[in-house]
Amino acid sequence: MDPRPTRRTSSTPLADASHARLPSRRRFLLAAAGLALTPALARCVAARQAPAFLRHVSPRRPDALRLACIGTANRAWENIQEVRHEQIVALCDVDSAYLERAGAEFPDAVRVRDWRELVDHARDLDLDGVVVSTPDHAHAPITLAALRAGLPVYCEKPLTRTVAEAREVRAAAARAGVATQMGTQIHAGETYRRVVEAVRAGAVGRVTAVDCWVTKSWGDGRLTPGAVAPPTLDWDLWQCDAPRQGYIEGVHPGNWRKYWAYGTGTLGDMGCHLLDLPMWALGLTDEHVAAAEVFAEGPPVDAVGTPAWLEASWAMVGVPAVGGAAPAGPGAPDPLVLRWFDGGRMSPFVQEIGAKDRVDYHNRFNVCFIGTEGALFANYGEMLVWPGARAAQWRAPAPTIAQSVGHHREWLAAIRAGRPSDALCGFGYGSRLTELVLRGVEGYRNMRRG
Ligand SMILES: NC(=O)c1ccc[n+]([C@@H]2O[C@H](COP(=O)([O-])OP(=O)(O)OC[C@H]3O[C@@H](n4cnc5c(N)ncnc54)[C@H](O)[C@@H]3O)[C@@H](O)[C@H]2O)c1
Questions:
Q1: Which fold does the domain 57-133 belong to in CATH?
Q2: Kind of pairing between the strands at 336-342 and 310-316
Q3: Which CATH number fits domain 188-406+431-449: 3.30.40, 3.40.720, 3.30.360, 3.30.110?
Q4: Distance CA 380, CA 191 (A)
Q5: pLDDT tens digits, residue range 10-51?
Q6: Which of 156, 182, 235 to mutate to test the pocket of ligand 1 (most atoms within 8 A of CB)?
Q7: 176-196 b/e with 16+ CB inside 10 Å = b?
Q8: Mean pLDDT of 112-122
């Protein structure tokens, strides 16, 4: 029961395409009534035509939330596993092979290829929430439409592809007042909570800088003229609101991260997971992030593909001291600095002490809080206070941040309770973290052009 996909072509404006889909009698009546078919009206009229999938909507199960999942393979499939104890009412994917595979596991869920049909018919589907696990360029269009329809949303990281979109989603989520959660599931793990407590309790003294890095690299995406999309993929729908272009060999699945049109390179991919730690521990606000001075370095900017390596830093003034007292005396204190290294680039601090200690901190960890009294290394699952002498006398504080019920379950509980603040990475926090990361990405793209 695969519903008719709604195709739009790059050369056909939406109003014309929708108009062309209308039954001729309706078109005639509209023309006779002298109604101009604006895009909004065209969508309205098209939405009133009940799509075939609505005949197969399953009845509400008691005690379960009714969810639609947009994107079904890879990370999307992992997200589906995390919410499958609820009622999966609809699955949506632009690749029919993925959609059929997921659909086979959820025979009661309707299958849809165009997410707009899901959002347009959210009431008919009686939805309680939407899980968005598409490539990054589709996050903002889908999330904004869902929020405007009053739907709670779980959306993968980074929340958006651009800073402007992050701010728009923040505003829309605040207006909607529904439960939201960005897909930074490490936030719900034990380690990050204990790191935040340790840093705040002075494990490294007053924090002066935080270095974050990954060894991997998503870069050097190039166009491949004449490439043909896999037969199961609706390339037009996949592009969502991005400017239309021919299929790029291998871009789907996964490699869209290498293209500015769809992704944000390595920093955009991993930054939300890692910069989450300094954002949380230091209590950074929207204002700190918006006012940060950003510096970036990398290979010459390419208009199409993301860089093979990148270094970025954010200098912030006015961040209250964490882990120790602010220095006394006249003059403004030094700014707090966050630094990012990917694609093989290394933090000079980590490199230096690693060489001295003969320890490969770089490959073992991803975050280092640097303070007036020492340093604290962390990854998703462990932390280490440095140097050894300080670690020997350091006593971790009693836990103050309660264990999470799980990242997805926080969101589900927040929907049930009608309390968006129960989800710790709601779109207020999530958009701020995304903005921090994307200011680094955009800093790189802009600085090199200038
Ligand atoms: N939280 C994490 O640890 C984590 C891990 C990996 C990926 N991610 C994030 O998850 C998202 C997906 O990453 P991925 O690597 O799984 O990508 P992918 O390209 O492998 O998979 C994307 C899925 O969405 C589908 N899709 C694409 N466009 C769609 C659209 N417009 N409507 C409906 N379905 C669409 C694809 O067919 C595919 O099923 C990204 O935002 C990524 O950053 C998060």
A1: Rossmann fold (3.40.50)
A2: antiparallel
A3: 3.30.360
A4: 6
A5: 222 222 233 333 333 344 344 444 445 455 555 555 555 789
A6: 156
A7: bebbbbbbbbbbbeeebbbbb
A8: 98
Question: Which ligand 1 atom sits closest to the C-alpha of 98?
Answer: 39
Separation between Cα atoms, residue 198 and residue 398, nearest integer Å = 9
* Ligand 1 atom closest to the CA of 76, numbered from 1: 16
* Interval 393-428: pLDDT, tens: 999 999 999 999 999 999 999 999 999 999 999 999
pTM of the model: 0.90
In the chain, domain spans: 1-49, 57-133, 188-406+431-449
Query: Strand order in 180-183's β-sheet?
Result: 110-112, 87-92, 66-70, 129-132, 153-156, 180-183
**So what's the pLDDT on residue 61?**
97
The number of the ligand 1 atom at minimal distance from the alpha carbon of 95 is 37
pLDDT digits (tens, 9 = 90+) for 140-167: 999 999 999 999 999 999 999 999 999 9
Q: Give the nearest ligand 1 atom to 256 CA.
A: 19
Distance 134 CA to ligand 1 centre (A): 4
**Pocket, ligand 1, Cβ cutoff 6 A:** 70-76, 92-95, 98, 115, 133-136, 138, 156-157, 183, 185, 237-238, 240, 252-254, 269
The whole-number average pLDDT for the span 219-233 is: 97
Nearest CA to ligand 1 atom 4: 75
Pocket test for ligand 1, best of 2, 7, 69, 75 (most atoms within 8 A of CB): 75
